[in-house]
Design goal:
Elements (H helix, E strand, L loop, with lengths): L5 E6 L3 H13 L3 E7 L3 H9 L5 E2 L3 H6 L5 E4 L6 H11 L2 E4 L7 H13 L5 E3 L7 H12 L5 E9 L9 H20 L3 E7 L15 E7 L4 E7 L7 E8 L2 E5 L26 H4 L1 H17 L7 H20 L3 E2 L10
Parallel strand pairs: 1-2, 1-4, 2-3, 4-5, 5-6, 7-10
Antiparallel strand pairs: 7-11, 8-9, 8-13, 9-10, 11-12
Helix pairs in contact: 4-5, 5-10, 7-10
Bound molecules: (2R,3S,4s,5R,6S)-2,3,4,5,6-pentahydroxycyclohexanone.
């Protein structure tokens, strides 16, 4: 082992956690995967068995406490994040936590407070879009001032398909949450109000599920963000962001070609290229850069990227979004005063 190699443990090795395990074990520099944990112990054993020197630990908190684990990736469901992050904070271990931070704003705020009380940041949130080369270049261009003030953002977020258990609420909490972070990242402002509209659902939506959804954010400075989230589009994974400024526009995630049309076919969706099947392909580079930035920061003793505050703000917006989903009416976002948190 290199002297300063970061020894990483991963909690949760479902789709995303297994992808991160491969990344840490094979792609990211100066890091070594040492342990994984999952309630499905057979799955944990199977992932551990793919790499030399990696063991499966049955209890996630035992993984956090293990002496040879320097830092932890949390890719478990949001409902267990609070306990697992608190354990990492208690143990003083750097943590990269997948979104959502937690399932509601009260528990997310408890984590913001717990981290601040311990006096130094330890947690990076897994909003990977910020590391995607196109989103990062877009942000740089906006920050340069060349396009003038940002006025509007239009986000498109389509998945090929999801299981029937992915209900309307999950579209807000698990999918729209990315656009919440994109809006806050692009504007550098909080979201003050959200409206979630329910168009007539696709025939592919299970009974009672609102898919697609349209969400509208009103930003603190008055800007507006429109979002389409459609998780059963049948075609593939399409994520785009168009930012409208006073002197120009910029688009991240735009495919090239004259007419851009996707449809379901034998070969899947196409536009003269291939529409990626899911986020692992579309954001592969973003995940590589996100994990490398996290490892490098941990080794320097720092935290970079989205914070627990970003996770909390996203939870608060989604909570208001769920209320709006029920009525279609605008709902104000209730956010704690950052200045009073210490
Ligand atoms: C999933 O959990 C993700 O994080 C993906 O990025 C998102 O596109 C998808 O809708 C979510 O289910």
């Amino acid at each position: 082992m290199e002297e300063h190699e970061l020894r990483v443990g991963i909690i949760g090795v479902g789709v995303m956690g297994a992808d991160h395990a491969h990344r840490i074990a094979r792609l990211v520099g100066n890091a070594r995967l040492v342990a994984v944990s999952d309630p499905d112990t057979a799955r944990a054993q199977a992932v551990a068995g793919q790499y030399d020197g990696v063991r499966a630990i049955s209890g996630p908190l035992d993984l956090v406490a293990a002496d040879d684990v320097d830092a932890v990736v949390i890719a478990s469901p949001g409902s267990v994040h609070e306990e697992q992050i608190l354990a990492c904070l208690e143990a003083g271990k750097y943590t990269l936590c997948e979104k959502p931070l937690t399932m509601d704003s009260a528990s997310s705020l408890r984590l913001v407070r717990a981290e601040r009380e311990r006096g130094r940041p330890l947690v990076q949130l897994g909003f990977m879009r910020r590391f995607d080369p196109e989103y990062a270049r877009m942000k740089e261009l906006l920050s340069s001032g060349r396009l003038g003030r940002t006025l509007l953002v239009h986000n498109t977020h389509r998945n090929k398909d999801v299981p029937d258990s992915f209900r309307s609420e999950m579209i807000v909490r698990d999918s729209l949450v990315h656009e919440v972070d994109v809006a806050r990242f692009v504007f550098d402002e909080e979201i003050e109000e959200i409206t979630v509209l329910s168009p007539a659902p696709s025939g592919h939506s299970p009974e009672g599920v609102v898919d697609p959804q349209i969400a509208i954010f009103r930003m603190a400075g008055g800007g507006i963000v429109t979002n389409e989230v459609f998780v059963r589009s049948q075609v593939g994974y399409e994520v785009r962001c168009e930012v409208v400024c006073e002197r120009g526009t910029v688009i991240a995630g735009r495919p090239w070609g004259d007419l851009y049309s996707t449809a379901v076919g034998d070969a899947g969706g196409s536009w003269g290229g291939t529409v990626p099947a899911d986020f692992r392909a579309r954001f592969a580079r973003a995940y590589d850069l996100e994990l490398q930035a996290w490892v490098d920061a941990c080794r320097r003793g720092e935290v970079v990227g989205p914070t627990t505050w970003d996770g909390y703000a996203a939870s608060a917006v989604c909570e208001a979004g769920l209320k709006s989903l029920a009525t279609g009416a605008p709902v104000p976002v209730d956010l704690a005063d950052a200045a009073t948190l210490g």
